[in-house]
Amino acid sequence: MADRSLQQIISQLRSRGSSLPFSESSALLSKAKLHLLQLNALTPNPSVSADLLTLARETYELGALASIRAKNPDAFTRYVQQLQPFYELPSNVLPPNVPERNKVTGLYLLLLLTQGRYAEFHSELESLANREGGGDSGAVEGDRYLGYPIRLERWLMEGSYDRVWNAMKSREVPCEEYGVFSEILTFQIRSEIASSSERAYPSLPISSAKSLLFLDSEGDVMSFAKQRGWFLKDGQIFFPDTAEATAAEDGTQEKEVSKMVIENTLGYARELETIV
């Protein structure tokens, strides 16, 4: 009876997907987990059938996706932690649903990336090779869901913010849930570009800053400038004196790297404007 009720709940969660308000999906997920508890299937154990393990795994996967759509990273992380024992089961016990597993794992990688938890990001990547059906590094990066955060992380580390921006605005975003992180990454990229600008130049034209920061209008640039404590005069943005900070960072090399980042990003932004 509990088994059938669980199937009905999962079917409802699956069919309504993103149209289901988080409050309703949370209520359904709570009922599903109660059924799993009654069936002694909240976590994998030898007495649980493969069919029931599959239902339990799907419950947690649906919960993870609902949490991301609701922008609830704590709930999402809990679901990921609950999924790990299921993902580690050998395929003769529980055949993997690789696309769904990779979707959730890719979202978790994106979460780690947006939170600046780079050591955990790379630890998670290393663990993928040990999963059944995980494949080598080439197969992992070639996966639709896993490759996306891997590429973003590499480009962020290189300072290739233009490539990150382009990926977030294109069809490279694997699915709806991945788009949730675009706003967070956009803020991070703007902050990084702003810091690079401060290190590289004493001032910039407002028009260049608009392209550089991927802002929609010069009014948006002015608002952003005020938030950063920049000075505006005669169509120019003047950055506060950062000489002390620059000296502490081995100024010359840092400045050259920052200039390269800015020039690459500006070049991309100008190309984009000509296309549009």
TrEMBL record:
<dbReference type="Pfam" id="PF10075">
    <property type="entry name" value="CSN8_PSD8_EIF3K"/>
</dbReference>
<comment type="similarity">
    <text>Belongs to the proteasome subunit S14 family.</text>
</comment>
<dbReference type="InterPro" id="IPR000717">
    <property type="entry name" value="PCI_dom"/>
</dbReference>
<keyword id="KW-0647">Proteasome</keyword>
<dbReference type="GO" id="GO:0005634">
    <property type="term" value="C:nucleus"/>
</dbReference>
<dbReference type="GO" id="GO:0005829">
    <property type="term" value="C:cytosol"/>
</dbReference>
<dbReference type="GO" id="GO:0043161">
    <property type="term" value="P:proteasome-mediated ubiquitin-dependent protein catabolic process"/>
</dbReference>
<dbReference type="GO" id="GO:0008541">
    <property type="term" value="C:proteasome regulatory particle, lid subcomplex"/>
</dbReference>
<feature type="domain" description="PCI">
    <location>
        <begin position="75"/>
        <end position="255"/>
    </location>
</feature>
<dbReference type="InterPro" id="IPR006746">
    <property type="entry name" value="26S_Psome_Rpn12"/>
</dbReference>
<dbReference type="InterPro" id="IPR033464">
    <property type="entry name" value="CSN8_PSD8_EIF3K"/>
</dbReference>
<protein>
    <submittedName>
        <fullName>26S proteasome regulatory subunit rpn12</fullName>
    </submittedName>
</protein>
